[in-house]
Amino acid sequence: MIFISRWKFMITPDTQHLFSNELAKYNLGEDCPVFDNLFEFCQIYAGGTIDAACRLNNKLCDIAINWAGGLHHAKKCEASGFCYINDLVLGILELLKHHARVLYIDIDVHHGDGVEEAFYFTDRVMTVSFHKYGDMFFPGTGDAKEIGEREGKFYAINVPLKDGIDDSSFTRLFKTIISKVVETYQPGAIVLQCGADSLAGDRLGCFNLSIDGHAECVRFVKRFNLPLLVTGGGGYTKENVARCWTVETGVLLDTELPNEIPENVYIKYFGPDFSLKIPHGHIENLNSKSYLSTIKMQVLENLRCIQHAPSVQMQEVPPDFYIPEFDEDLQNPDERIDQHTQDKHIQRDDEYYEGDNDNDHQMDIA
């Protein structure tokens, strides 16, 4: 029971046990902690991806970006891996209102298990995930043998990789597979998850990709000239995440950015060279040519088994969410942010620390 007075409440041991069971039921706690304004946080990043899909459907843009999205581990009934709501699934469902086939591509270092699971039994969505697999690496799924079931058989493609893959190996494999996927599947729209934890130097990742190598995958997908929804994802060395998604925003806008980072309030985090690009890493590449060739041939063989560009029966299309009638680009960005919203942009006291209290600095030294 909970006893509530005018100013405070008391949680009994029985109630505490009940709360713990509810948290465990939905996999909350551990790597999915509960924090203040969690629901609003989910509304913002998931709503951004849904809105991006709506804008693509209504031809208000060719490319829509939501770097706050890409939380690909969340499942229908549970949180997982820092992901609470799977915005990618919601965005893809929105795209399916207007497109017979949607292609999902994932270059996060972790397997895109939540998205794959959501569409494992359908040919309306093809999921392609390039990720680290083996050595009990989270989430433990993503073997090349996981190909989908029932109507979705062969429409789930997994490219399991080992530690240390470099730019040339990764981009060569990526381009070969994605070219064949697009040619065979003929999607109406593409969703690209750009998790930055596949970069060299990430605290949880184990690849050797430079920002140029990561961005080359984005550039390649853009060349198909299909409606494209781009999201963020993982990334645990924050200064490199910021670098990566800045460069890739430039790629998507056909804008070449200078390598020198301009002066800003966070400039100290980008020292000592204050440059936008980062080089590749030096982890031993355990992906031999024969291993990558075997994976490539297995994927291409599975693609030969699918129905060429599967069709979908005509049916009533559900209504779109609200689309504003005015052009937001013409609005003054300072005027359309109310005070309540501005107040929420205040930096948390524990977000960045100075000097010896900087957790990131301590971890780098360690």
Tell me briefly what this model is.
The chain has 366 residues and is of the alpha/beta class. It has one domain (23-305): Histone deacetylase domain (Arginase, Chain A). It is built from 10 helices and 8 strands.
Structural account:
Keywords: Chromatin regulator, Hydrolase, Metal-binding, Repressor. Its cofactor is Zn(2+). Belongs to the histone deacetylase family. HD type 1 subfamily. This is histone deacetylase. The chain has about 375 residues and is an alpha/beta fold. The chain has a single domain, classed as Histone deacetylase domain (Arginase, Chain A, 3-Layer(aba) Sandwich). It is built from ten helices and eight strands. The strands form two sheets. Strands 3-8-7-4-5-6 form a six-stranded parallel sheet, with helices on both faces. The protein has a two-stranded antiparallel ribbon with strand order 1-2. Strand 1 (about 1-5) and strand 2 form a beta hairpin.
